[in-house]
Structures are given as C-alpha cells and as structure tokens.
Specification:
- The chain starts with a strand and ends in a 5-residue tail after the last helix.
- The chain has helices at residues 17-30, 42-45, 52-68, 86-95, 100-104, 107-114, 121-136, 149-166, 211-219, 236-249, 253-260, 265-292, 296-323; strands at 4-9, 35-40, 77-80, 141-143, 174-176.
- The radius of gyration is 21 Å and the shape is globular.
- It has 328 residues and is mainly α.
- It is built from 13 helices and five strands.
- Strands 1-2-3 form a three-stranded parallel beta sheet. Strands 4-5 form a two-stranded parallel ribbon.
- It has two domains: 4-182 and 294-323, Rossmann fold (3-Layer(aba) Sandwich), CATH 3.40.50; 211-289, Tyrosyl-Transfer RNA Synthetase (Orthogonal Bundle), CATH 1.10.240.10.
- Helix 4 packs parallel to helix 13 and helix 9 packs antiparallel against helix 12.
- Bound molecules: adenosine-5'-tetraphosphate.
- Adenosine-5'-tetraphosphate (AQP) binds next to helix 1.
C-alpha cells in the first residue's frame, strides 16, 4: 500500500503564487507516488470572521484551483474539511492531550492574535485541528510551505504524546518543503511572507490575476538602491523576485547566476513577469474549462468526502478504543 499524503488550504482569500509554489505545485508533482488527500480547510478559515456567502463561494473556487493546478481527481482525493465531521471530533480528543503552553508558543497564533481585539479560542486551537486533519488519515507526508513547519512539528509532538499515553495509534508525519519557493515574500514588503489576508493591491500575485495585473504588480515590486543584480549584495526584494523566477523555471543556482548577474532591475522584473505569466497560462486555461462545466467541481468534492469518510471513521474508532470512550 502507498504511503498517504495530506495537505490543505484555507478558503480565506485569493490564492497567490506563494500558495502555488509553496504547496500546490509540489502536490501536483508528488501526488502519483502516494495515496493523496488535498483538503479545503474551511473550519480553519472561520478561526477569523468570514462573510458566509463569500466563504461558501470560495470553497468551490479553491477546489477548482486545486484541479487547475494539476491535482488529478481520478487519482487524488479533493475534499472539504467540514464535510467530514470526524475532523472536529478527533480535534477534541487531541485538545485533551495538548498543553496550552505548546499552543501559545506558535508564531502564527502570536501574529494573528495581535491583530484581533478579542481573540477567539479557535485561533489558539487552530494547530490542534490541523493535527487532527493530518492524523485522521494517518498521513506519512505533509507537503507545505515553510510557514507551516512549526505547526507540523506540533502535530508530531501531539501524535507522539498521544502514542506514549495510550499506545501506538498515529503515524508520526514528516514535513515536505519545496527546495525553492518554500517562503515567497510580499512584493510590496519583502520582509513579510506573501499572504492572502494581508497587504495592499501590490502585495501578492493572485493565481486568478490577469496577465496585465501580474505584469503591473511585478513591475512595481520593491527592490533596493542597487541598479542591477549583484548576488553578493542584493536585498530581500531582489532575492524574492529571483526565487519566484527560479521556482517557476526550475533552473539551477548556477544557471540563475550566469543569466541574471549584472541585469538591470527593470529587465529583471520584465523577465520575472513573463516567466510568471507564461507558467500560469496552462493553469488559467484549465481553470476556465473546469469552471465552465456546471456541477463538475461539486461532484469532485462529493466523491472526495465519500472516499475518505470510512478512513476517518476507522481512525476515530481506534482512538475511542484507545482512550476508553464509548464505542458501539
Ligand atoms: N508566502 C508563502 N510562500 C510559500 N508557501 C506559502 N503558503 C502560504 N503562504 C506562502 C503555503 O500555502 C499553503 C496554504 O496556506 P493556508 O491557506 O493554509 O494559509 P497560510 O499558510 O496562513 O497562508 P496565507 O496565504 O498567509 O493565508 P492567510 O492570510 O489566510 O492566513 C500552506 O502549505 C502554506 O505553507
């Protein structure tokens, strides 16, 4: 039997090239080597307020983006978290073995709670629900961007703690990070990671941006006071543009240096913009085709929930038995 892969995206904004390079591109590449489950984690999205009608529409949009990015629904499962109640059920059981101090240390919790007047309990519990998502399917590999590495470490800690308290129950998962593109930074502020819920109009290149929007955003990206690319002294803005190019083009470091050293920033930006536009062209075409077929995405999601429900139920049954909870 093939090892299982699990990963997810929150339907909480416009998916951007950071989500693509950090997660989706890698998922499409590795999916055939594993039994793969890719999830739209809507229960995570509501840890901060989402307008209900927008959230509902986003769920199908994100599913269509997964498929357009190359996830093959004949081989891989695409599903919505809230369609399988066992995610929330297992999260409670894991909450009971997780010390609060572990959760308060999470950097994403610190950053997101700092921006809220009242901190919802869900924001603190977020990594436990994420652990439940992964452990529910006994996933061996979790391909994510670098910002999720700390949550993955916590998932491993929770699994190990549960296993040592109640006996071997969960597979302890491994994190899989892409070599380039694991942390794409904001175009307007290269000190901050590109994020769907932060920044102004020039912050992120959305996957559904038009070629002209992509060109405009990249041409306005923050660089530094040098006139041209110098690999020894370049600032974070230039390093980010080069990383974006390299992640799309899949060039080696040597080829990048030979091609870009000494290139003026205006020309660098033009080349990065054209690389992003042309790389996303097949994605845009597939997205148009997928969304033109009424009911197609809903059917994929229904089938996804149907496939994973028995797997989730068997893990919950095992956990209940281990903990001495009531089973019938
Ligand atoms: N900037 C990034 N560079 C590389 N990978 C990234 N990911 C997110 N941002 C970058 C990866 O994309 C996957 C899905 O992310 P998510 O939807 O679960 O939420 P997130 O990590 O919190 O991403 P955002 O874009 O910052 O969303 P918001 O603003 O809604 O919180 C994950 O694998 C993530 O690592």
């Amino acid at each position: 039997m093939k090892a299982r892969v699990f990963s997810g995206v929150q339907p909480s904004g416009n998916l951007h090239i950071g989500n693509y390079l950090g997660a989706l591109k890698n998922w499409a590449k590795i999916q055939y080597g594993y039994e793969s489950i890719f999830c739209i984690v809507d229960l995570h999205a509501v840890t901060v307020y989402q307008e209900p009608a927008t959230l509902r529409a986003k769920i199908e949009e994100i599913a269509a983006i997964f498929l357009a990015a190359g996830i093959d629904p004949k081989h891989s499962t695409v599903m919505v978290q809230s369609a399988v109640a066992a995610h929330a059920e297992l999260a409670w059981m894991l909450t009971c073995v997780t010390p609060v101090g572990w959760l308060e240390r999470m950097t994403q919790y610190k950053a997101k709670s700092a921006a809220q007047e009242t901190i919802g309990d869900g924001l603190l519990q977020y990594p436990v629900l994420m652990a439940a998502d992964i452990l529910l399917y006994q996933a061996a590999i979790v391909p994510v961007g670098d910002d999720q590495a700390q949550h993955l470490e916590l998932t491993r800690d929770i699994a190990q703690r549960f296993n040592s308290l109640y006996g071997e129950t969960f597979v302890v998962p491994q994190t899989s990070l892409p070599l380039v593109g694991a942390r794409v930074m904001g175009l307007d502020d290269p000190e901050k990671k590109m994020s769907k819920s932060a920044g102004g109009a020039g912050h992120a290149v959305a996957l559904l941006d038009t070629p002209d929007q992509i060109r405009k955003k990249i041409m306005r990206a923050t660089t530094d006071s040098n006139p041209a690319v110098d690999f020894e002294t370049m600032g974070p803005g230039v390093a980010n543009l080069l990383a974006i190019f390299q992640a799309f083009a899949e060039w080696t470091d040597d080829r990048m240096k030979a091609h870009f050293a000494g290139l003026r920033y205006g020309d660098l930006k033009k080349q990065v913009a054209e690389m992003v536009v042309s790389s996303l062209e097949p994605f845009r075409r597939r997205y148009r085709e997928i969304t033109a077929e009424p009911g197609y995405v809903a059917g994929v999601l229904e089938e996804g929930a149907r496939r994973v429900t028995p797997v989730a139920a068997s893990t919950v049954q095992l956990v209940k038995e281990r903990m001495g909870l009531y089973t019938c």
